[in-house]
Amino acid sequence: MNRWIKVLLGVSVISMNISCDQITKSIVRSQVNPGEMIPVIKNYLTLTNIENTGAFLSLGESWLAPVKMFFLMLLPVVFILFGLYYMVRFSNRSIVLIISIAFVIGGGIGNMIDRFKFKSVTDFLHLDFGIVQTGIFNMADVSIVIGIISLFYCHSQNYFHTEESSS
Question: What is the value of pTM for the model shown?
Answer without folding.
Answer: 0.90
